[in-house]
């Protein structure tokens, strides 16, 4: 090695200060003698501490807790009929994207699995600049006008006097506000449903919520609603499970996304669009397209699949990418435009504004994660953290000395607007109940049970009785039986029936599976103990992994167990480091006699059964189920007993859960 290359190698590997000065020792500060005082001239110590002292930035005021990933988006067929947007019309375009999923209420360090709405925000780095689709996993929103957003969020967030509860809507101020603002009733029933507890970000739908518009080359505008549909199906946790996960693995959804991508199991979603020709803007009797508390049932306007999003790369650095990404509903490209939805209009201001505080100035679009993948040219200048070095002297327009607009860029759809200035809601926004009823009518029996239980839990935490009573009155206008069931659980008098249920339903709103779905990446725990049948465990593991299922062998401790054929078998991890709630199914094999006497193993089986999960046992494994009070003679397609359980277990995983069990007596 020559002296020169030696020198370069040293520089590339060694630590430096922010000024690029090589650091010789980052473990000891500069002192006057080994036991003497520290010296002010230690620039390395001062810089290191200064940087550390300022590591935190303000978290997002909502959606603070999140997880992100990179990926690509590609359309199926060109959409020239509807839009000029390049990424929606060029069939060869592979558009890079960054997606951030989030909860809404909790702080940045809060748990992943509260009962909450989830954010689903996508930044498309198109060849015409960035398009952000900043959506949620529920197709409607609590309020109709953005001027109510601070009130909604204040009421939802921890109460201001004692800052409790964290990441939870089950408290007085939230229910006080929503019961006084009845437009929230539709979104509330979604929040009380299993949609608020996604099993995985990978198994969650996404919605643009507002009506947007696409504009084609002839200037024709079409109203659209955006839908994301996950390839793995839409699945949820149950509430008891979600609450326990909050303690056992608060990073549950974040970890799930990270691990799937690391393992090469790239999650994907289909983008679907509901197209509504402008002439049909008023075609739906009780739905105003500008009202974000309403959805358009798929029976009225089908969802047309238009493209696929695939997430295929984890961020290199959480802070630089997931934390610093700045979405804005206002980031649209030519061919996509807004509507007059008053919630959307307020968002157009809010997202740009919030970044000034959160990211410390106006130059946040220059951060690597926010930077468009096309050249940026304009006369904006200066401000904190300017990273560009503009050249030339023409920093104004018009000019004859530098860059000018060429008139061919984004044009706003020239919609005719006419009306008096007034603070007024349209009468077409007045119906707050019929779509909540539609949602309730569309639920399966078990989904309804979960909804009733959720209202009872949330309202049961509300200490002001008058608020509970108010909510029951609202529910009575959604559906009388629902109101009666909730009232009975929260000490409120049964209401008198006041309105008839309209009886309409929309199949797409239910999560009850209509056909088996993929089992890829589902996680199965096999409980292990000495004496376990090696052949049985190996055979089942192989059958499951062949179908893409992740199998983990849980031992009494880390290391190995002795199998029935005399050989040790390595376990994946010790049982005490996990819990049934982080798995999709639990298996108790034959031969591991110690398991029936192990309370932890019994709890594993009981809890999994209680949460509707597939449970499998063979031979002596059945004793564990008996101790868990599981009835082995029950007719239950997700309780798979016997020597060859693989097919039954795969079939049960493919429909996610069996909620037709009587689990009242299960003590988990
Ligand atoms: Fe947001 N919202 N929002 N929101 N929102 C923010 O922007 C706001 C609304 C949504 O992963 C903030 O950068 C107002 C609807 C997501 O970084 C803030 C109103 C929908 C994310 C903000 C709404 C959303 C945010 C906080 C009513 C679904 C996370 C930090 C007018 C369609 C994006 C930030 C990410 C984040 C304001 C309503 C979705 C404060 C004023 C409706 C997914 O600007």
From TrEMBL:
Binding residues for heme: 60, 100, 149, 347, 351, 358
SUPFAM superfamilies listed in its UniProt record: Class I glutamine amidotransferase-like, Heme-dependent catalase-like
Keyword Metal-binding: yes
Organism lineage string: Bacteria, Bacillati, Actinomycetota, Actinomycetes, Micromonosporales
Molecular functions per Gene Ontology: catalase activity; heme binding; metal ion binding
Cofactor(s) this protein cannot do without: heme
CDD domains: GATase1_catalase
Catalyzed reactions per annotation: 2 H2O2 = O2 + 2 H2O
Database matches in InterPro entries: Catalase, Catalase_AS, Catalase_clade2, Catalase_clade2_helical, Catalase_core, Catalase_haem_BS, Catalase_immune_responsive, Catalase_large_C
Transmembrane segments annotated in the record for this chain: none
Active-site feature positions: 63, 136
EC class: oxidoreductase
One matching Pfam family: Catalase-rel
Family to which this protein belongs: Belongs to the catalase family. HPII subfamily.
Gene Ontology CC: one annotated term: cytosol
Main function: Decomposes hydrogen peroxide into water and oxygen; serves to protect cells from the toxic effects of hydrogen peroxide.
SMART domains: Catalase
Domain of life from the UniProt record: Bacteria
Known EC number: 1.11.1.6
Annotated PANTHER family: CATALASE (PTHR42821), CATALASE-B (PTHR42821:SF1)
Keywords of the record: Heme, Hydrogen peroxide, Iron, Metal-binding, Oxidoreductase, Peroxidase
Organism: Dactylosporangium siamense
Full protein name: Catalase
Residue ranges occupied by any Catalase core domain in the UniProt entry: 16-405
Biological process according to GO: hydrogen peroxide catabolic process; response to oxidative stress
Keyword Magnesium carried by entry: no
């Amino acid at each position: 090695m020559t002296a020169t290359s030696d020198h370069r190698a040293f520089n590339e590997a060694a630590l430096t200060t922010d000024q690029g000065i090589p650091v010789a020792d980052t473990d000891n500060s500069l002192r006057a003698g080994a036991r003497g005082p520290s010296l002010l001239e230690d620039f390395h110590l001062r810089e290191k501490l200064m940087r550390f002292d300022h590591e935190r930035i303000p978290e997002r005021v909502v959606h603070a807790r999140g997880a992100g990933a990179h990926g690509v988006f590609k359309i199926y067929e060109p959409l020239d009929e509807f839009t000029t947007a390049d990424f929606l019309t060029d069939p060869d375009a592979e558009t890079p994207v960054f997606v951030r999923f989030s909860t809404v209420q909790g702080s940045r360090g809060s748990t992943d699995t509260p009962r909450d709405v989830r954010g689903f925000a996508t930044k498309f780095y198109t060849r015409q600049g960035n398009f952000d689709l900043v959506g949620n996993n529920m197709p409607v929103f609590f309020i109709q006008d953005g001027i109510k957003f601070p009130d909604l969020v204040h009421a939802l967030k921890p109460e201001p006097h004692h800052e409790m509860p964290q990441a939870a809507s089950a408290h007085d101020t939230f229910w006080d506000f929503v019961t006084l603002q009845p437009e929230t009733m539709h979104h509330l029933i979604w929040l009380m449903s299993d949609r608020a507890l996604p099993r995985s970000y990978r198994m969650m739908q996404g919605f643009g919520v507002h009506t947007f518009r696409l504009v084609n080359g002839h200037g024709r505008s079409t109203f659209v609603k955006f839908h994301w549909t996950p390839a793995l199906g839409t699945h949820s946790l149950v509430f008891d499970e979600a609450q326990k996960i909050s303690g056992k693995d608060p990073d549950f959804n974040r970890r799930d996304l990270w691990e799937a991508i690391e393992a090469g199991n790239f999650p994907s979603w289909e983008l679907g669009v509901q197209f509504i020709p402008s002439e049909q803007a008023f075609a739906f009797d009780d739905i105003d397209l500008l009202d974000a508390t309403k959805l358009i049932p798929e029976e009225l306007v089908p969802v047309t699949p238009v493209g696929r999003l695939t997430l295929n790369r984890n961020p290199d650095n959480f802070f630089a990418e997931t934390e610093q990404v700045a979405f804005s509903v206002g980031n649209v490209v030519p061919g996509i435009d807004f509507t007059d939805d008053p919630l959307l209009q307020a968002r157009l201001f809010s997202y740009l504004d919030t970044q000034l505080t959160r990211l410390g100035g106006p130059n946040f679009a220059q951060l690597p994660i926010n930077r468009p993948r096309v050249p940026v040219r304009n006369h904006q200048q200066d401000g904190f953290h300017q990273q560009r070095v503009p050249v030339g002297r023409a920093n104004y327009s018009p000019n004859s000395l530098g860059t000018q607009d060429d008139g061919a860029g984004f044009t706003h759809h020239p919609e005719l607007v006419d009306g008096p200035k007034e603070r007024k809601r349209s009468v077409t926004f007045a119906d707050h109940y019929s779509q909540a009823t539609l949602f309730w009518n569309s639920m399966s029996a078990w989904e309804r049970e979960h909804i009733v239980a959720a209202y009872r839990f949330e309202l049961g935490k509300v200490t002001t009785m008058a608020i509970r009573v108010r909510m029951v009155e609202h529910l009575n206008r959604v559906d009388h039986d629902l109101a009666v069931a909730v009232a009975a659980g929260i000490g409120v008098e049964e209401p008198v029936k006041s309105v008839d249920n309209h009886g309409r339903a929309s199949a797409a709103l239910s999560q009850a599976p209509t056909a088996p779905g993929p089992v890829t990446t589902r996680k199965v725990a096999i409980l292990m103990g000495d004496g376990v049948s090696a052949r049985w465990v190996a055979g089942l593991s192989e059958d499951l992994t062949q179908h893409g299922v992740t199998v983990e062998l849980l031992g009494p401790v880390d290391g190995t167990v002795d199998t029935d054929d005399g050989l040790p078998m390595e376990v994946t991890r010790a049982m005490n480091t996990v819990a049934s709630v982080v798995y999709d199914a639990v298996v108790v094999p034959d031969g591991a006699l110690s398991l029936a006497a192990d309370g932890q193993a019994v709890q594993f089986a009981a809890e999994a059964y209680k949460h509707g999960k597939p449970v499998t046992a063979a031979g002596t494994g059945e004793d564990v189920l008996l101790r868990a009070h599981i009835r082995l003679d029950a007719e239950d397609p997700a309780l798979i007993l016997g020597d060859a359980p693989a097919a039954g277990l795969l079939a049960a995983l493919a429909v996610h859960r069996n909620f037709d069990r009587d689990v009242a007596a299960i003590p988990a």
